[in-house]
Design a protein that fits this description.
- The protein is an alpha/beta fold.
- The protein has one domain: Flavodoxin domain (Rossmann fold).
- The chain is 36% helix and 15% strand.
- It has a five-stranded parallel β-sheet with strand order 2-1-3-4-5, with helices on both faces.
- Helix 1 crosses helix 6.
- The chain binds flavin mononucleotide (FMN).
Length: 209
């Protein structure tokens, strides 16, 4: 079983990346081959609205025709058993590079057909990880529910794990941040974040089983 992990935070060692690493370790613990890719290392754009993926008889029908660093990864995701994507919440949404990934993943699967049929015939299980400053993940229910619903439509079973009130800085004394309850944040990082990582590990296991 092949599981591809995509970290959508520009920070390679922080909350989103750590949760993703745990999810991949969970998948590996039950026999999956895993790989971790940081989106920040890649040069790619969102959908360019070329419609090559919808062109009848076209060589890119049902596939993204754009050629950049994402091309090979998109092709491999469509052949993988599972993909796990981690992202911080940025201004109530995911970072632009994650949105670009989603457009390139989703749009070729969408066929403008009345029966709602999808262009992808292979199911891929999906794990989504979100990390955020906000104390309550339900604040982003419509964002996260929208992503989950779209992945379920085009790919298959989709699981979600969130971490809230994450540690944003190593040392809060060095930054403007008096809106934060720093001792509570640090305590949460020590006591709750390991539990969030454990839930990510379990999600990785469940996606593979
Ligand atoms: C540009 C930017 C925008 C952010 N916007 C939000 C937001 O709208 N809601 C929120 O809860 N956290 C927001 N955050 C905080 C991050 O989501 C949070 O610190 C996250 O855990 C960072 O992930 P990372 O440690 O993997 O980089 C924002 C952070 C940045 C840098």
């Amino acid at each position: 079983m092949n599981v591809i992990g995509l970290n959508g935070s520009p920070r390679k060692n922080w909350n989103s990346a750590q949760m993703l690493e745990h999810a991949l370790q969970g998948a590996a613990s039950v026999g999956a081959d895993t790989e971790l890719i940081h989106l920040i290392d890649l040069n790619f754009t969102g959908c360019r609205s070329c419609f090559a993926c919808k062109r009848l008889g076209g060589k890119s029908f049902g596939r993204c025709a754009v050629k950049d660093d994402l091309t090979d990864i998109l092709n491999r995701i469509l052949e993988a058993e599972a993909v796990i994507i981690s992202a911080p919440v940025y201004f109530g949404d995911v970072p632009g590079m994650v949105r670009n990934l989603f457009e390139r993943l989703w749009f070729p699967g969408l066929m403008y057909r009345r029966d709602g049929a999808c262009a992808y015939d292979h199911k891929v299980k999906v794990g989504l990880i979100y990390t955020m400053n906000c104390p309550d993940e339900h604040f982003y229910d419509s964002l996260i529910g929208g992503h989950k619903g779209t992945f379920e439509r085009f790919f298959g079973e989709t699981k979600v794990v969130c971490a809230t009130e994450t540690l944003q800085f190593d040392n809060y004394d060095l930054y403007v941040g008096d809106m934060f309850d720093v001792p509570r944040r640090q305590e949460k990082h020590e006591k709750v974040f390991p539990e969030d990582c454990r839930r990510a590990f379990q999600m990785g296991q469940e996606l593979v089983k």
